[in-house]
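Hey team,

Sharing the Probable malate:quinone oxidoreductase run so nobody has to redo it. Sequence (490 residues) first:
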Amino acid sequence: MTENVDVVLIGGGIMSATLGTLLHELQPEWKIVAFERLSDVAQESSNPWNNAGTGHAALCELNYMPQQGDAPLDPAKAVSINEQFQQSRQFWSSLVDRGVLDAPSTFINATPHMTFVRGEKDVAYLKARYEVLKEQPLFAGIEYSEDSRVINTWAPLLMQQRRKGEPFAATRVPAGTDVDFGALAHQLFDHLTESGVTLRTNHEVRSLKKQKDGTWLVKYRNSIGHTPNEVKARFVFVGAGGWALKLLQNSGIPEIKGYGVFPIGGQFLKTTNPKIVAQHKAKVYSQASVGAPPMSVPHLDTRVVDGESSLMFGPFATFSPKFLKNGSMLDIVSQVRAHNLLPMLQVAVKNPDLITYLVGELLKNHTKKVDSLRTFMPTAKDEDWTLIDAGQRAQVMKKDPEKGGILQFGTEVVSSADGSIAGLLGASPGASTAVPIMLGLLKTCFPSEYPAWEPELRALIPTFGQKLNTDAALAEESTEATAATLGINA
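Structure output:
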């Protein structure tokens, strides 16, 4: 017999884990089933070695505040990203207090966020950015320096053997974080399964079909033996990374028309050499190369995974037609439909710099990649660094009424008109803003239940419905409270 449930979650990453946790806290009696096609959760983009682990709060990422010609720098996007990350911090803090999450150090650690630039033009830009951001309450404590002695105290590896006379500058926010989204997803799913939620690993969803009664028939099979089965759900969330597009296309909802995705893989240089790791505790971002997508901004990062510290530098773009690291070589072709072919072709024509950038990245050997690292760390030696493969990022391509096909960076929720199904497309800042993304989904897809949920949402997220950056006292109170609970005091 076909099993009937309230909610189906497709994909075992941080997005499904976050939505499942929110729904379980709000409606503990609902029956929730989660499907993951691999043998464990958090093995794709949520895996700590498949992403940079940056708690994206726009503290160091320049692409959230780009220079637009001669116009004054606008902090609106940076402030918005920071506001969203604060909601995630509050949610995680509440879950720590409730015993849902383990000791905070198992998934989040204080790590200063820095930006480092070279050349007169970028130095001038960084200083202008600092002057704007230091006035924003959520960026309180940001520091700026062009003094090598000061920057050396922040991140010594940046300054050793640096060429004299070279213009450079850095900003630093001591209150940054490093987040292990894999550990976080595992802990959330552990709590859900202990609370009665069903998690089926090694199970792949094959089709989604809307029924006359408004429910969804979800057909799936066991990855081992290919035994088929099905379940009927009142609501379906597709949090399957790049495969979300394929499943949403399979569902037949008209809202997915015009969408496509462009897969970009990545590699990082990694070192665990204790002498090197001990000299760098920060996430240091810089300007992206010409044509590079925002997610390819070079950065030298402290990582803390399973209690062990290491350094990563990258990312270096790679290309694979797969939408997931464990995807199919036919993914990029199988997505093509009559409604998205033209927008995708227009994206290809409009982004020659991206193609040039990708080709240049693919031609780099190990030494060339370490050469790129040496712009950050002049003393880097080839033998200290090894290459690791990161996850696949599926950048959104979609139809725009005015511009035709556009390549969109960031994340986007696509939902049906009746709110019975929704999926997430895109990449960074993704995981860091999972909580506000899922809050938006709840409001869109559960309009009748949402008002009754608001008191509990305020209990989980104390400043729910408020803006922190317009209230300096509230911003300080909130950030101090979550820092204390999560053990991330600067």
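The chain has a mean pLDDT of 94.

Ping me if you want the raw files.
A.
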